[in-house]
Amino acid sequence: MMRDWEQPAPELAPRPNPNVAGMGLEDLRALVAGLGESPFRAAQIREGLYRHRWTRWEQFSNLSKALRAKLEGRTELRWPEIQESVRSEDGSTKHAFRLEDGSLVEGVHMPYDNRTTLCLSSQVGCAMGCTFCATGLMGIKRNLTAGEIVGQVVTMLNAHGHAGDAAVNLVFMGMGEPLHNLDQVMAAFALLTDPKGLGLSPRRITLSTSGLVSGIQRLAAYARRPRLALSLNATTDAYRDRIMPVNKAWNLAALAAALKAFPLEHGERITLEYVLLKGVTDSLEDGRRLAAFARQFPSKINLIPFNPHEGSGFEPPTEARIGELCGLLAARDLTVSVRRSRGQDVAGACGQLVRGQQD
Ligand code: SAH
Ligand code: SF4
């Protein structure tokens, strides 16, 4: 039987007028050529879209009125729209974005003292079917376009009044499996890190995968790529098979081999995310096996207490156990942090705001 993630996810249907939001320089050049304009207009449009993060043609003061009118009639300029925002007590805000076909995805804005982290979605739903994950329970609807991925960044930075000099971290830890939509994710990465586009640092962008080894190998071949995080979540094949169906295609040994072969820059480490499910993945033996797995390549460990959602059937670990596991890993000289789920009071874990609206 073919699994959902063994075939490409559906794409957004094209519309009569092309959407300029998300076009790179090459597409913009073709667009302006088609409109009978000089090629240098393409760079000006790029500057307006990604440097200034303008959202309406009338804001493009770097273009003539006549050209703006032409663009207005012949193209669309459409970023994802915020349908609902829920602010958490800890200062983070979860946004549900409405896309042009009515689909909803979520993104989270998390401000810290000297940086801002944005959590992005890469697909509408997810094909991987992890049993503890709200997005996994939805199934896959379609891939996001590069424009819809970049659009989450543009829209959140605009909504929160980003000045442009503060550091921005991006994590692909919202809805979807980014390696199941690698082409669009990498097209978005190019726009996000283009010095003449959004100009974000590639080192501050992290792609999190459930362990699609074919995708890890494809990612490894890119000269410029985001940092890698792996959702390990279990330390034996028996348990990983149970909570992450992808493990039946690539088990822990296959994963470890792919991660050992992944070319790292000097000082770069692979993040191992580990969701703690009470009584399932949070034993002290798990801690010891996690340590052994992590020692096979440069890594840091991020423990994530399960964020409960209705109907999941799993429970979060006790505080005492989180502390014991942290101690056990730190005693083995591993770098370990605990992700205190931001926005937990507003259904902050992956997929939960959107799922609440669809139910
Ligand atoms: N699909 C990718 C990225 C999105 S999920 C992946 O799986 O890595 C981002 C992270 O959230 C993953 O580490 C996943 O294991 C974790 N996660 C999903 N549901 C969760 C929940 N209910 N509580 C805590 N972490 C969860
Ligand atoms: Fe998809 Fe990641 Fe959720 Fe698994 S944990 S279902 S890969 S979003």
List the topology elements.
Layout: H1 25-34, H2 40-51, H3 65-74, E1 81-87, E2 93-98, E3 104-111, E4 115-119, E5 123-125, H4 134-138, E6 140-143, H5 146-159, E7 167-172, H6 182-193, E8 205-209, H7 213-220, E9 227-231, H8 237-243, H9 252-261, E10 270-276, H10 284-294, E11 299-305, H11 319-331, E12 336-338, H12 352-358
Parallel strand pairs: 4-7, 7-8, 8-9, 9-10, 10-11, 11-12
Antiparallel strand pairs: 1-2, 2-3, 3-4, 5-6
Helix pairs in contact: 1-2, 5-6, 10-11
S-adenosyl-L-homocysteine (SAH) is lined by residues 126, 132-133, 172-173, 177, 208-210, 231, 233, 273, 275, 304, 306-307, 309, 349-350.
What attributes characterize this protein structure?
single chain, 359 residues, alpha/beta, ten-stranded mixed beta sheet, two-stranded antiparallel ribbon, 12 helices, elongated, binds S-adenosyl-L-homocysteine, binds iron/sulfur cluster
Please explain how this structure is put together:
The protein has 359 residues and is an alpha/beta fold. It has helices at residues 25-34, 40-51, 65-74, 134-138, 146-159, 182-193, 213-220, 237-243, 252-261, 284-294, 319-331, 352-358; strands spanning 81-87, 93-98, 104-111, 115-119, 123-125, 140-143, 167-172, 205-209, 227-231, 270-276, 299-305, 336-338. Helices cover 33% and strands 18% of the residues. A 10-stranded mixed β-sheet has the order 1-2-3-4-7-8-9-10-11-12, with helices on one face. Strands 5-6 form a two-stranded antiparallel ribbon. The longest helix is centred in the middle third of the chain and has 14 residues, at 146-159. Residues 344-353 and 355-359 have low confidence and may be disordered. The protein binds S-adenosyl-L-homocysteine and iron/sulfur cluster.
